[in-house]
Design a protein that fits this description.
By secondary structure, the protein is an all-alpha fold. The protein is 73% helix and 0% strand. It has eight helices and no strands. Helix 2 packs across helix 4. The longest helix is centred in the C-terminal third of the chain and has 24 residues.
């Protein structure tokens, strides 16, 4: 997490500090975008757009929330705009990110299938539930950080997580019973 001195330096125009902040934020923002949008190309585009907005708007950042929470709000808004624009075109591209390359081929195939099933289940959730699942289990945010990021009351976050887990459980159960097809 970038410290306040680094953030202040970036706000004053220190390009090295800005680059360091953007590099720190890039992967977490990409993960969020990937899980919200469902494919690598759209996630990359959304991440780049979010990073540009962060670059242009960092001077407006106030320490009311953590920088990561502030940045997650930006990528979430970019994804929601992207989702609205491409509503009818969103695909469920289930490519597995490159972090699985070191596995044996059998393990790669098995991991890809599990990953695809989970990704498909998450994509079936309504957007509000998908967001809380991504922030909690992919980004490892606390309930409070999720509430801050989404501007929701804590009880709403807990309720959404509970309902999302129930829906995922049911979806995966039906999926398994249907032999991999829902």
């Amino acid at each position: 997490m970038p410290d306040l001195e680094l953030i202040e330096a970036a706000k004053r125009g220190d390009q090295a500090a800005m680059v360091q902040i953007l590099q720190h934020l890039e992967l977490p923002l990409y993960r969020t975008a990937y899980y919200l949008l469902g494919n690598e190309d759209d996630a990359s585009d959304a991440t780049q757009e979010a990073l540009i907005k962060i670059y242009k708007k960092l001077h407006t950042y106030q320490e009311k929330a953590s920088l990561e929470t502030w940045a997650q709000r930006i990528v979430r808004n970019v994804c929601m705009d992207f989702f609205r624009k491409k509503k009818d075109e969103i695909s469920l591209d289930m490519d597995v990110p490159d972090n699985h390359k070191g596995l044996q081929i059998e393990g790669q195939i098995e991991n890809r299938l599990v990953y695809q099933d989970l990704q498909e289940a998450v994509m079936q959730l309504r957007p509000a539930y998908r967001e809380v699942i991504v922030l909690r289990y992919i980004q490892d945010y606390s309930y409070q950080e999720i509430a801050d990021t989404l501007c929701l009351p804590m009880n709403t976050v807990k309720s959404y997580l509970f309902r999302a887990r129930q829906e995922l459980h049911l979806w995966l159960k039906e999926y398994d019973q249907g032999g991999g097809k829902r």
